[in-house]
Amino acid sequence: MSCPDHHHQHAHGPAAAGRAELPELAHRLRRQDRKLTGARQAIFEILRRQRHPLSNKEIFAELPAGDCDLATVYRSLHLLEDMRMVKRFDFGDGVARYELLAEGDDGHHHHLVCTRCAAVVEIAECFTRELEDTIARQNGFTAISHKLEFFGICPRCQ
Amino acid sequence: MSCPDHHHQHAHGPAAAGRAELPELAHRLRRQDRKLTGARQAIFEILRRQRHPLSNKEIFAELPAGDCDLATVYRSLHLLEDMRMVKRFDFGDGVARYELLAEGDDGHHHHLVCTRCAAVVEIAECFTRELEDTIARQNGFTAISHKLEFFGICPRCQ
DNA sequence: GTCCCTGCAAATGGTTTGCAGGCGG
DNA sequence: CCGCCTGCAAACCATTTGCAGGGAC
Q: Helix (H, G, I), strand (E, B), or coil: what is residue B86?
């Protein structure tokens, strides 16, 4: 669950890519006079393992009992978000969810969410990026971004 | 915007277009053993006048003082949403906003929201509708829908 | 040793709900 | 009159925050 060092449940899976990220996390933290604490490390590990959006509570639940407070999870995720190490997603249910961000990745992608079982599929490409320019120009807006999520019923729930 | 039939929303002001909708509201309510109360009428009127997404609190504030309780506003909007007379939008700030729906209109459109002053521009066309089919097919999902909103800085705030 | 970080608990803000009385049809 | 509706207040849920002690560096 949250021992960062010697667990390799996906020896050649996504975890392999993430292993090198720990030092980077430490480095980025120190740059801003922040500390690499156990709680932050544990949360980071959980996100690295579960490669789909997780809510604060879900992350908290994955934590070895009593590893840290729920409030700390909230605070840590804000910090990680500011550091651009996670990206927040909003599925419209009033709960923030976070995904780990690879270095240099801005994390821009969308999801397909099952409205029955909450299964999440990642949609690789973004179809609307080019549209931002058009919309920006037509309305005189700058610094344009967008949020897009798809909803439906997954094969198993049909 | 979205009045397909015989409404001329701007020629004589928005109220002209909406006037005929009252009986429809009453009719739809009665169908389900619901009543046309003062509160519901007032809320309906406010939405008809302000043709952009309004939060519960904003609607409540527009109400003549003491016209009804905030809880009633929430309850009324749920009812109107179930009746497909309003559509809920989510700008990602944890507040539900509602727009009046013309009869037969499913209200599918998107917004461009200023992240500084919260000004809202309606985006007429939906660019992603055709994509739903593709995404549905690729992932075996059915009953697909999507949420898409744009954010940026409006001309006045730049 | 200095600040940052954390646990705890209380506060916040949006939204929902239980209940008893009120009013529309 | 019969239920649906409403006001009021308390409950809920996600999230935030104040504070004092604890830990990273």
A: strand
Chain A residue closest to B119 (CA)?
Answer: A141
B42 φ/ψ angles, rounded to the nearest 5 degrees: -60, -45
**A96 CA to chain B: closest CA distance, Å?**
10
| Nucleotide at minimal C1' distance from the B74 CA | C15
Asked whether residue B137 falls in the same domain as residue B98, the answer is no
pLDDT of residue B20: 65
Q: Domain containing A113 — which CATH number?
A: 3.30.1490.190
Q: Assign 3-state DSSP to chain A and report helix, strand, coil percentages, each to 5.
A: 40, 20, 40
Residues of A in contact with B123 (CB under 8 A): 135
SS3 content of chain B, % helix, strand, coil (to 5): 40, 20, 40
Question: How many pairs of residues across A and B have Cβ atoms under 8 Å apart?
Answer: 96
CA distance A126 to A106: 12
Same domain, yes or no: B33 and B49? yes
Integer Cα distance of A34 and B56 in angstroms = 40
Query: In sequence order, what are the residues at sequence separation of 6 or more whose Cβ sits closer than 8 angstroms to the Cβ of residue B18?
Result: B45, B48, B49, B100
Give A20's pLDDT tier (boundaries 50, 70, 90): low
B70-128 confidence digits (pLDDT tens): 999 999 999 999 999 999 999 999 999 999 998 788 888 999 999 999 999 999 877 77
User: Which stretches of chain A sit within 8 Å of chain B by CB?
Assistant: 90, 92, 94, 112, 114-115, 121, 123, 127-128, 131-132, 135-136, 139-155, 158
Contact flag A112-B139 (C-beta cutoff 8 Å) = yes
Residue with minimal CA–C1' distance to C9 is: A71
Instruction: Note the pLDDT of residue A144.
Output: 93
Domain span at B28: 1-102
